[in-house]
Amino acid sequence: MARTVICISHATGAGGTDLGRLVADKLGFRLIDEEIVTRAAEHQDVRVEELADVERRKSLLSRILSEAAVGAATGTPGVVMIYPPDLQPDKNSLRALIRQAISETADEGNVVIVSHAASYALADRDDVLRVLVTASPAIRTRRLIDAYGLDEKQAKKSIGANDAGRADYLKRFYGVADELPTHYDLVINTDQIPAQQWSDLVASAAAL
Question: Which of 11, 49, 53, 163 is most buried by its number of CB atoms within 10 A?
Answer without folding.
Answer: 11
